[in-house]
Amino acid sequence: MESLVDSVQRFPVPTDTTEVKRFVHMAGFYRRFIPNFGSKAAPMTRLLRKDAVWRWAEPQQEAFEQLKKALTGKPVLAYPDFSRPFKLVTDASQVGLGAALTQDQGKGRTTRCVRL
């Protein structure tokens, strides 16, 4: 049986809005684990607007590859260490918003415990 990672890596390049929607919704299920998901997916989600003209170009291909890489790469989350202080980091733009609960692990190393 094919693993989830393999199925994402083999996901075909979308050829219409239905396929874009399928991929973006699948990736969106894991959005809390992908930093700046909204910004990364924006070139693809623009194709889902009612007035959008279908045109798969370089920005959409780059977004597709970035999301596939983010979904199949090494995890970027760590278990929280309740003996250390937490830091809430937030960010917003016109296409998305996000937040991360982080911890300083010493020696200049910071880990993310939760990403929203």
From TrEMBL:
Signal sequence region: none
Domain of life per record: Eukaryota
Record keyword ATP-binding present: no
Record-annotated Reverse transcriptase/retrotransposon-derived protein RNase H-like domain positions: 56-111
Pfam families hit by this protein: RT_RNaseH_2
Keywords, alphabetical: Multifunctional enzyme
PANTHER family: PROTEIN CBG26694, PROTEIN NYNRIN-LIKE
Name of protein: Reverse transcriptase/retrotransposon-derived protein RNase H-like domain-containing protein
